Fold:
Amino acid sequence: MSRNDTTDPGRHATGTLRVIVADDDPLSRRAVRDALQEAGVTVIAEAGDGRAAVELTLHYVPDVLLLEADLPGVAGQEAIRVVHARAPAVAVVVHARLDDAEVALRCLRAGALGFLPKRYGLEPLPRALRAAGRGEAIVPRHIAGHLLACLRRQREDAAGLRPVRSPLTGREWEVLDLLCDGLSTDEVAERLVLSTETVRSHIKHTMRKLGVSSRGQAVVVARRMRNAAVG
Structure:
């Protein structure tokens, strides 16, 4: 973990955008920091792993957290969930090595406000982060098209919906969503960056809350609840 100790952690009276940059590549962090500061954006701290990114964000509460999707320690998506839950005023923008629409969708579901592949270079970053600081979503056109296609499929089968009246927690719905997609316990654990034992515990609690005795029955009940929410 590294910090920009020369920067006042308090909010700037001038309204300058305050950003934390989280990336495990020191050269990438330096390039991003220099590009942002040259454009008048204040980089108040830097992190080299997910845990440091979360800790620094909760400490400084920046306007924007610019986060690499694949970080060591606490993975990017889990870091997004924690920040979104504990510091909802912070806009999280994912700066991803891979231009992957599925990764983008998972990050946005976790609570990110934007997804910007690194292949676009550094030039659009200051403008994108300022927009995110104003609460605007940052999503490239081709990924927006993928999200729209997912939304259309969701309207047909209600996958991914969270019924308003549900005994399940958000995490239990995440596990159940992946079970509905046919993933195994190990695959769910890998996707959500959880231990296999934790996933089994979530599945056990989910089945108990839904009053079922098997995963297949839990999937059926989940789909019924979603269809009722859509209807």
Q: What stands out?
A: The chain has two domains: 2-146, 158-230. The longest strand covers residues 42-47. The longest helix spans residues 141-157. The CA atoms of residues 75 and 193 lie 7 Å apart.
